[in-house]
Amino acid sequence: MRPTRGSKLMAAFVLWFTGLPGAGKTTIASAVATELESRGERVERLDGDVIRTLFSDDLGFDKESRDTNVARIASAAARIARAGAVVIVSAIAPYEDARRRAREVISEQTAFVEVHVATPLEECIRRDPKGHYAKALDGRLENFTGVSDPYEIPSAPELRLQTTGATPAESAAVVITRIEELGLIGATA
């Protein structure tokens, strides 16, 4: 279901990064976006934190609110991909059911590639880029994914990305290789 422009095949797919807070989703997604743009692809980024601030500030952090946020991101991603862009989503999306529904919505329009950024909880706590884990562990932050709220590990992602000991650039290269293998982009010489 990928549109063509003349004889050139346009990439149109959704690359969905999921993982614990602090796993590296946004950093790796940014590196992948940069690489795809350097190859001439039209790329749009949807970051869970940004979407929540701009379009979902009416939501809390209970399961229903999180599922609603994921549904909103999926709907936007499907529409953007339908217009011919590669859409890169970086969102915790902690629940398997919500990710499955996102896959269904997006797959009606284009390819869906789930990337589980499988950084161990201990490493995410060590990184703690926003200081949220420290607050959650002290009980000052409720419903925090990985501490007081579950993260359901994806059962069958297209890529399970092990980041421990890898730089963001190395992790991005693994993602690029995988989407080349899936035939969504051409390999470079």
Provide a quick synopsis of the model.
This protein has seven helices and seven strands. The protein has helices at 25-38, 48-55, 63-82, 96-107, 121-127, 132-137, 168-181; strands spanning 4-5, 8-9, 13-18, 43-47, 86-90, 111-117, 159-161. A hairpin with a 2-residue loop joins strand 1 (4-5) and strand 2 (8-9).
Key words describing this protein structure:
five-stranded parallel beta sheet; alpha/beta; 7 helices; about 190 residues; disordered N terminus; Rossmann fold
Can you characterise this structure?
This protein is α/β, with parallel strands linked by helices and about 190 residues long. The chain has a single domain, classed as 3-Layer(aba) Sandwich (Rossmann fold), CATH 3.40.50.300. The chain has 7 helices and 7 strands.
Write the layout of secondary structure elements.
Layout: E1 4-5, E2 8-9, E3 13-18, H1 25-38, E4 43-47, H2 48-55, H3 63-82, E5 86-90, H4 96-107, E6 111-117, H5 121-127, H6 132-137, E7 159-161, H7 168-181
Parallel strand pairs: 3-5, 3-6, 4-5, 6-7
Antiparallel strand pairs: 1-2
